[in-house]
Amino acid sequence: DGVYCSGVIIEKGRMTTRKTRLLSRTQHVVRFDEQESRAPSREQVAIMESHSAKMLEQAGCLVLSDYMGGRGVLSRELISAVARIGRDIGVPVWADPARARNFLDFKGVAAVTPNRKETCEATGIPIESGTMPEAAAEWLLDRLDLDLAVITLDVEGLYYRTRGGRSAMVAGQTRRAYDVTGAGDMIIAAAAFAISSGADSALALEFANFAAGMEVERLGVVPLERSEIVRRLRSQVGVGSDKVVELPELKGLLDDRRRRGEKIVFTNGCFDILHAGHVSFLDFARRQGDVLVVGLNSDQSVQGLKGAGRPVLSQHERGAVLSALEMVDYVVIFEEETPLALIKSLQPDILVKGEDWRLKGVVGREVVEARGGRVVIAPLVAGISTTDVIQRIAAGRPGGKSGEQD
């Protein structure tokens, strides 16, 4: 969606490269590659060169993403041609050379972004963990006539050095690395996006490193939504929470967690004035599975359920407080009186509700149990409820009474 595909060349009789990975939960076991190692014809190279020249005039950056030598379309002649065109019209050409490729094929591009192992093999210069690869970066700058050399260093982040001698180490942003597959692609894609949006190379690489940190939290190569990146960035600077997500994005996030073999737990409520009963309940819910999703009644929904004067805290405040709890993975706000539609959409594996719902009937039970899931009834903390907390505040008295926790 939104990708311009006019430059795609279709060749009958040539297969598209296919890579099949076998995993045990999050551990890669083996990969099978089905591909051809036939170089493109002169006619095809000429077509690609001509099309690249036309497209570069309206582009902000050109990315060359390579397979191992001989398995893609990036011949030395094509690389040289588009690099020259890019320099002539002032459009940077960034390349991600593949392992075992002759890096000298990329001489003349603006920047390269190899990883640690690729760089060591190409330059013959070892890069030890915890060290900055100045010598390897200088080798790349000098031998390839670059403006910028970028070396990605796994979870450590990335190092870059410019033709003018400016350099920096950008520390990794990973919170939990599940799978490094696709991290290199994300680095160059995000950097190119930022460059095309007007950022300088330093800011573009900060952004790229941030996006790559999010990518390795996923299993496999998973595109990142713009809204997700913005949400995480806002959370980093203390504006909002990256745990409060909209339904379409949440479904994608949960699909990824399921691919890891994780069980999705769902519960819901108003959670107006969070108290010890809520915390105990949410901790119980989280222990039933691997991921806890909290459906949060919107302000309008709470008012319909609880009456005038409620909620005391807005949905944004309640969402922020819930997000601060370690046991909560995601918060999604819903407008309806019950979470039935939300449960149907998310299809959780485990549905948790409090003891006070045992006789009332748990909304969504049929949906969860129909797909082999289960409903768990959580014990309540005696002597505390949101209504009672409000009354105690109004009366200026300690203590409490048992009742519903919402």
Main attributes?
about 35% helix; 6-stranded mixed sheet; 14 helices; alpha/beta; about 400 residues; single chain; 13 strands
Taking the sheet with the most strands, its summary is:
6 strands, mixed
CA radius of gyration is 27 Å
What structural class do helix, strand and pairing data support?
A: alpha/beta
Report, as a whole number of angstroms, the end-to-end distance: 42 Å
Secondary-structure element order, as H and E?
Answer: EEHEHEEHHEEEHHHHEHEHHEHEHEH
Shape: elongated
Report the mean per-residue pLDDT as an integer.
86
Low-confidence stretches: none
Number of strands: 13
User: What's the arrangement of strands in the largest beta sheet?
Assistant: 3-4-5-6-7-8
Number of helices: 14
Binned, the helix content reads 25-40%
Proportion of residues in β-strands: 15-25%
Give me a quick take on this structure.
With 406 residues, this protein is an alpha/beta fold.
Structure write-up:
The model has no long low-confidence stretch (mean pLDDT 86). The relative contact order is 0.07. The radius of gyration is 27 Å and the shape is elongated. It has 406 residues and is an alpha/beta fold. It contains 14 helices and 13 strands. The longest helix is centred in the N-terminal third of the chain and has 15 residues, at 42-56. The chain has a 6-stranded mixed β-sheet with strand order 3-4-5-6-7-8, sandwiched between helices. It starts with 17 loop residues before the first strand and ends in an 11-residue tail after the last helix. It has helices at residues 42-56, 76-89, 116-123, 134-144, 183-196, 201-215, 226-236, 247-259, 276-286, 299-306, 315-323, 340-346, 365-370, 386-395, and strands at residues 18-24, 27-34, 62-65, 93-96, 111-112, 148-152, 157-162, 167-171, 264-269, 291-297, 330-334, 350-354, 374-378.
